[in-house]
Amino acid sequence: MELEALRSIYEGDESFRELSPVSFQYRIGENGDPKAFLIEISWTETYPQTPPIISMNAFFNNTISSAVKQSIVAKLQEAVEVNLGTAMTYTLFEYAKDNKEQFMENHQPVTSTIPISSIISVETPNTAPSSKKKDKKEQLSKAQKRKLADKTDHKGQLPRGWNWVDVVK
């Protein structure tokens, strides 16, 4: 029941993502916001009698310090204890959205000492020779040109209704 409710509530919401029927992600904050974070909630076998697994280990959260992540998860765990025994995924996502500023008050963006460009080597294809080559036009035979000329008017446009379907013959 909760799965159907989540699907209908978050239908069309780009922040919500269903990873599997028992695992969900929700992005709190806008995409370019430095204080945005991603929460992943996974249901256990005996959910909602047992607490769900709350994780912030997504790549999206790499700029958030581990202390801030732990404090967010701890505050969400407190909300879990209050709602234990009831469907709580929607409640947890909304609680996180409502308290986003409080969660991220101690947030200082973490920057790695190793630049990302040195970790990932990206080879760009050599575009210089391809830019010198001009794209060849498709060569038409005389018969093809003649058929094309018969179909079009003097401006090279197809007549009105050329692709209409005969309804009554």
From TrEMBL:
PROSITE patterns assigned to the protein according to its UniProt record, in alphabetical order: RWD (PS50908)
Q: Which Pfam families does UniProt cross-reference here?
A: RWD (PF05773)
Q: Which domain of life is it from?
A: Eukaryota
Q: From the UniProt annotation, give the residues forming the signal peptide.
A: none
The protein here is known as RWD domain containing 4
Q: Which SMART domains match?
A: RWD
Which InterPro entries does the entry mention? Answer: RWD_dom, RWDD4, UBQ-conjugating_enzyme/RWD
What SUPFAM superfamilies does the annotation carry?
A: UBC-like
Composition bias (Basic and acidic residues) maps to: 147-156
Residue ranges of domain RWD in the record:
1-103
Q: Where is this region: Disordered?
A: 123-158
